[in-house]
Amino acid sequence: MLARSHKQRTLTGSPRGGYTLVEMLLVLSALLAIAGIVWPVLQTWYGHHALKEAVHDVRMRLANTRVRAIDSTVTYQFLYEPFGRNYLVLPFEAAAPDATLVSGTADTAQMQAVQARRVLHGRLPEGYEFRSALK
Known about the structure:
By secondary structure, the protein is mostly helical. It has helices at residues 21-72, 99-103, 108-116, and strands spanning 76-80, 86-91, 120-123. The protein is elongated.
């Protein structure tokens, strides 16, 4: 008995390989279903990661300021813009900054004076803001 080959032969005699359209659509639909299941999980994970990174940045600035305060025996204060993204860390003895420094709209002369007093200023990433823990 002769065994039949699973591959069809073309007119030239070479084996014909490839996938049918139905097979390609089946694989594509399976990949899309998996991507649809995984996508929300990845978005949630990225959101948590971005928040942790923003918190880590503020914590590192505060820790550096704490070390500087211990070394120089100067008390520092942390100021932030409520419902905003900007913050300042400056010596407590320094004159209280005006609202333009905290909001980030200060001119270059004000910013140079801030930098001369060893003041740290920063900004949270887009989409994050300081809010009160109390409701």
